[in-house]
Amino acid sequence: MNQFTAPLWGDEAFSAILSMKSIPQIIEIIRRDTSPPLYNITEHLAFRLFGVSEITIRGLSFFYYLLTIVFVFLIAKLIWDKKTAILASLLTFFNPFFFIYAFEGRMYAIMALGVAGSMYFFLKLLFAAKKTNKAPKGTILGYILATSWALYSHHFAIFIVFIQGFWWLFELITKNFKFIKWQLIAFLGTGILYIPWLLPLYEQTQMVGGGFWLGKPTLTDLRTLIYEYIATGIKHPLADYALYLSLTALLIRRWDKNIKISLILATWFLGPIIMTFTISQFFQPVFYNRYLLYTIPAWGLLIAGARRKVISFIIIAGILSLFIRIDWHYFNNPTKLPFNQLAQFVIESKRNDDTLINWSAGSHHLWESKFYGIPAPIYVKEGGGELPFFVGTALMEETDVIKTLPDEGRIGVITSGPVEEVAITGYTEIESKSFGNLKFIWLEKN
Q1: Single pTM value for the model
Q2: Which of its termini does the chain have fewer beta carbons within 10 Å around, N or C?
């Protein structure tokens, strides 16, 4: 087993179940959730072309990941040279935290692709303003499409537009009027394309504002996230060594060489992180590592560019060798819960009059159950209250929650919590089986 064939976890299974529906249904359902619809629409199309499987799901994310690396290469080649572009591409591709989401069946790789494309066309417009008087219409259109792609992939892509807006204002102050005009057209074009999602965005922000699952981050959380993005995204004995080398590479970098480009890349990396951290202190907590992973390519570009010839190359070679070892171990040792194995056990042992349930409403496995062909509604005792929206209620049907149990047959319980927590009056445990941290329990009526 490897990362392409690893079983799905809850959020991935949620996305897969949603993407099996028609495109109008996808849009209608997801506007009652917390995301834009682009990833699920493309996953829907991938299912129609290649069938529904773990390989299709993870292959789609890996495809977007590779395209992101292409834009990293193009950015580095635009602002430096081909050799730097190769180094930046390798540093980004093998970055441990980024590498995790090359195989994640969610919207993170597609968002990173949109942001990298947006930054490429933004920088290309900036460079073009110094060389030509003719408006580069293809570059403006490229920016509009790439940025719209990012915004329709994940709401947090908006922070890269804020960073671009900051540099647009800087160019306004320095009277770079050609760029100001061209980029303004690009901003307006993106805004027009995003108009259809403004009302759903408002509804989603109101929903999140009513209560979300994230807590207020601390300065330790901020430091941890930055370290994860730089080198420690995968827990491994070599991760700290990779971190020390990465920080060293940043320190010895020639910051005085093309300082404006260095600052643009630095704000791409740190700007969205600091903005979401600040918002989380004073408003709604929204600070979470995977939401901002699109900043990682900026780190790869910073390390690769303006390096000192010999010593920087040795350090980068050391970073890459450590990254490759860490990633290779991760790729060949998936850690996701083996729900496919549990499903096979249930299918082989289930009788016609048995009832399956998910025990924990807060950390249920409803979507994995559905994806792997053993529908098991969430058991909520009478008076248990409504489920919070962030457990996937937008996609839930009436039959996905059960409050009363049948009088006959066995009950099969799915949980990833302690077996001792599972207690239903009038029922006795007759068999339990563990699949890593995942458990399945057969109960029989007394």
Answers
A1: 0.94
A2: C
